[in-house]
Amino acid sequence: MYKSLIRPLLFKFDPEKVHYFTFSSIRLLSRLGLISLSKSLYTVEDKRLEREVFGLKFKNPVGLAAGLDKNAVLYKELSNLGFGFIEIGTLTPKPQDGNPKKRLFRLREDSALINRMGFNNDGVEVAVERLKKNPKGKGHVLIGGNIGKNKVTPNEDAVKDYEICFDALYDYVDYFVVNVSSPNTPNLRELQDKEPLTALLKTLQYKNQARPKQKPILLKIAPDLTDEQLLDIIDIVKTTKIAGVIATNTTISREGLVSENKTETGGLSGKPLTKRSTEVIRFLSEKSGKAFPIIGVGGIHTADDAIEKLEAGASLVQLYTGFIYEGPQLIKDINKRILDL
């Protein structure tokens, strides 16, 4: 139904406007009590799907990647579509509008998206107020908090922004993701260099270790890193003792694209990223000797795509563009495919 009826209609309109329209529609359906129907349609309940990773129990290994529910607006409703966990953000200390519109583009022929959103979000404190409605216990949605820096914050002061977000979210998320790999905030990717990245993660780990209970901290990396840089990432994870890595963010590559919007600047996601993100997962897993968990994300449009990432070394997977193109049936298909293995 989604691919045959709903998607063709939604794809007639501007993608960013459709995003807000869809969120409003889901919220309305929830208020009418109809969103629970989606839970029965798309959720696969089976103990065999449970995964324990970096000390957390996931009801299934398929999550929603950061970027869709930036502001923690619909995490409960989205979890009813079958996701095992929801990652919110990227959040920054202060609210920011992001980059000028138009900044989100469909590449239909490539089953892809290009975005240059620029960390548009309501600010971390607003998200915290929404997350307070997600208490521990029955009905708790497992949440990852993806954190970044404000555009106006110079790189030499970036650590402070990450600290602010860490402190604000600590009581309300189950794990953290440090985002230094978005191509849409000027100079952000410079923080992926070994020295500044090690300093940033050590600072967050120091704050983490001062807490009564530590929260897993993960690093989200770009698919455009060289093998040498990936070896640096392995060394950084070992040195800082963070919990794991999310591989990968969007790419600045445009290789092999055929769609009209292929020349737009920003981060590319979707099918063109499938192979490279899996390569990065396999490299990290093999070269590290499976020393840390990896969440695999990038170009998952079929159940087989997800299985390839799990077999390459990922412990969990996340969807974003594939979810937009394929709909919630993809979540169900992946979980059922895992059960068939």
Automatic annotation (TrEMBL):
Domain (Dihydroorotate dehydrogenase catalytic) ranges: 49-339
Catalytic residues of the enzyme: S182 (nucleophile)
Biological processes annotated in GO: 'de novo' pyrimidine nucleobase biosynthetic process; 'de novo' UMP biosynthetic process
Pathway the protein takes part in: Pyrimidine metabolism; UMP biosynthesis via de novo pathway; orotate from (S)-dihydroorotate (quinone route): step 1/1
Binding-site positions, FMN: A66, G67, L68, D69, K70, T90, N146, N179, K220, T248, G270, G299, Y320, T321
SUPFAM superfamilies the UniProt entry points to: FMN-linked oxidoreductases (SSF51395)
Cofactor, free-text remark: Binds 1 FMN per subunit.
Protein keywords: Cell membrane, Flavoprotein, FMN, Membrane, Oxidoreductase, Pyrimidine biosynthesis
Primary subcellular site in the record, as a coarse category: membrane
EC number, as in UniProt: 1.3.5.2
One Pfam family cited in the UniProt record for this chain: DHO_dh
Cofactors named for this entry: FMN
PANTHER family linked: DIHYDROOROTATE DEHYDROGENASE (QUINONE), MITOCHONDRIAL, DIHYDROOROTATE DEHYDROGENASE (QUINONE), MITOCHONDRIAL-RELATED
Protein name listed in UniProt: Dihydroorotate dehydrogenase (quinone)
Organism this protein belongs to: Flavobacterium akiainvivens
